[in-house]
Amino acid sequence: MKVTIQPSVLSGNILAAASKSSMQRACAAALVAKGTSVIQNPGHSNDDKAALDIIKRLGAEWSIDGEELTVKSNGVKPINSDVSCGESGLSIRMFTPLVALSEKEITINGEGSLVTRPMDFFDEILPQLGVSVKSNGGKLPLIIKGPLQPKNIEVDGSLSSQYLTGLLLAYAASPNPSEGGAFEASSNKEVTIKVRNLKSKPYIDLTLDVMKKFGLTVPVNNNYEEFIFRWDSSKIPPLGGGGAYTVEGDWSGGAFLLVAGVIAGSITVRGLDLMSTQADKAIVDALMKANASIAMDTKGIKLHAGEMNAFEFDATDCPDLFPPLVALASYCKGETKIKGVSRLAHKESNRGLTLQDEFGKMGVKIDLNDDIMVVHGGKGLKGAVVHSRHDHRIAMACAVAALKAEGETTIEDAQAVNKSYPDFYQHLKSLGASVSSSNFKLV
After folding, report:
1. pTM, 2 dp
2. Using one digit for the tens of pLDDT, what is the confidence trace for 416-434?
3. Last residue of a domain, which of 246, 277, 306?
């Protein structure tokens, strides 16, 4: 699918899409929180659909009625011998430890770039927890056979916090919290996950918040270096379920709308919680550093186009912000420096190089200096034919940058946005952007 965007002026109000980070975690928590859970404002991106398919294959029943998702579960009770995570990195990293709660042998697979991403973490860690793991040389497919038993372990959090998210949920859901054997009803148990070099700490805050809201055992967080689970055998509550959870508005997708507003419009974005634990809420700090016209009130976040200056920003803990930050920096006068390039290699594409190549086609010079990206902005952009590289955030970054480029921009493989934000082009169009496609109807 090709989408063409003409220079445009934006105006109006828009409600941010549901957060897939929040939605996928809610699906996982609803699976292990025995009972009936109600999830409001469920997302419908490809990653969200993958999570729903996974929990169904692992034994949960669910139904959607309007803006309400009801999940009924008795824990991890697989009804299939295989699951697919689609192209979702969060799903593969979060659900694999949950699959390992079962004694049944399960094959875990994926699609697209997911099949090339390293999965060595599971080869190293899960056998320490009594889980049999077979991988394809550290890549998919994985063949998992549990049951997982929580033990004192140490993990490396430098590649992704999503591995830790899966372990936290699995430890909370495990019926046998002991270090060396079966759970003894007469004793208290304590196990610790030690973590070194943890990145993206705000996403762990989100995980812990979801666990709490679903009634799961929440560990003691010792400065993100230790997560201590304590079970008092005389006071073991039933697992959660029966509660309600509302999926937050998505700061990751919303970041593109906010940047679009300061590049090309006067718009108001609603539905983004300024108290959220989502890491990508940091886009607000970047906009302020760039001297963008941004104001916040009870009606939402208001944005206006205007002159902006180069800025410095550390995106190590929020690497998904690199694409919208590059679009923003392209319209800021001077050299913008963004730290955290090392976090970009194992995304849907190698985002550092992809951003350099695709924005280069639009006349933006980007240097990659070890862990620092330098964007030479404020010199004007030109319309061009660009390619998403099958990466949803690259497609959205190019679309936003195209709003004030000279001439039209055509994005090839534009449907990549379906992974996280299937309504993205429709939302831009509803704000007045000139968006068209020769083989897809944009309403």
Report:
1. 0.89
2. 999 999 999 999 999 999 9
3. 246
